[in-house]
Specification:
InterPro entries: RNMT_CmcI, SAM-dependent_MTases_sf
Largest sheet: 7 strands, mixed
Bound molecules: S-adenosylmethionine
Order of helices and strands: HEEHEHEEHEHEHEHE
Keywords: Methyltransferase, Transferase
Distance between the termini: 18 Å
Number of strands: 9
Radius of gyration: 16 Å
Helix content: 25-40%
Number of domains: 1
Pfam families: RMNT_CmcI
GO molecular function: methyltransferase activity
GO biological process, one term: lipid biosynthetic process
């Protein structure tokens, strides 16, 4: 398994992280690393997803950003399905379906809203609880439903480099490591995305996964 250390040094991360946490898109909070916004744009152009799932809506800024990127990349009809424990109240946008749900119980949400029927390719972004169990729950559910070629990003393994992963029981990096080891024949790390700006110069080290 590749190292999960990002290319960011601790002093850089301290200021970079405060920028990420205060960033807004169209006036709405959007907690995205700018490097990863670039990687997402490239991924979406290459994949041309027909369905995009985001777990962790927060204020809805990232769902808005994804809807705009999809429109700009030739996928204006691709729905953004954005899931959170609470739905943002201030955003009405025909391109986005905000659904109330828990990452630990996505199966019932899939059944209730017939999400299995959404067309592939899928692009899935897990950006919710960041706990080991939450990441594993999302990875396990989507692994069974994704088709070859579909992509999944697990956000914020950078928590390790920020010294915060113990609080998340190992968080995204421990989950990715266990998941990729146990799914070596069906998932691969998309290193061309993780390493686009330097080896794991991303908030999502080894976090861009492709179903093969
Ligand atoms: C980091 S924020 C999401 C940021 C957003 N994607 C963005 O880029 O702006 C994490 C979100 O996950 C949600 N969350 C936390 N635990 C969750 C769970 N068990 N199931 C679903 N969502 C959860 C929180 O309510 C919070 O809004």
């Amino acid at each position: 398994m590749r190292s999960f250390q990002t290319a960011f040094t601790r002093p850089i991360l301290e200021t970079y992280q405060s920028g990420v946490m205060s960033y807004t898109y169209k006036g709405v909070r959007c907690l995205k690393s700018p490097v990863d916004i670039s990687i997402y744009m490239r991924l979406i152009w290459d994949l041309k997803p027909r369905s995009l799932f985001e777990i962790g809506s927060h204020s809805g800024g990232s769902a808005l950003l994804f809807a705009d990127i999809l429109g700009n990349m030739g996928c204006p009809d691709t729905p953004v399905i954005s899931i959170d424990l609470e739905i943002p109240q201030d955003i009405e946008d025909d391109r986005i379906r905000f659904l109330k749900g828990n990452v630990l119980d996505l199966a019932s949400l899939f059944d209730a809203h017939k999400l299995d029927a959404l067309p592939h390719p899928w692009f899935v972004i897990e950006d919710s609880a960041h706990s080991y169990s939450g990441c594993m729950a999302a990875l396990t559910l989507f692994a069974e439903r994704m088709a070859p070629g579909d992509m999944l990003a697990v956000e914020d393994g950078v928590l390790d480099d920020l010294g915060m992963s113990a609080k998340y029981d190992g968080g995204p990096n421990r989950a990715i490591s266990d998941f990729v080891s146990s799914h070596a024949e069906s998932f691969e790390i998309a290193t061309h995305l993780c390493d686009m700006f330097g080896v794991n110069a991303t908030y999502n080290p080894n976090g861009y996964l492709r179903k093969v």
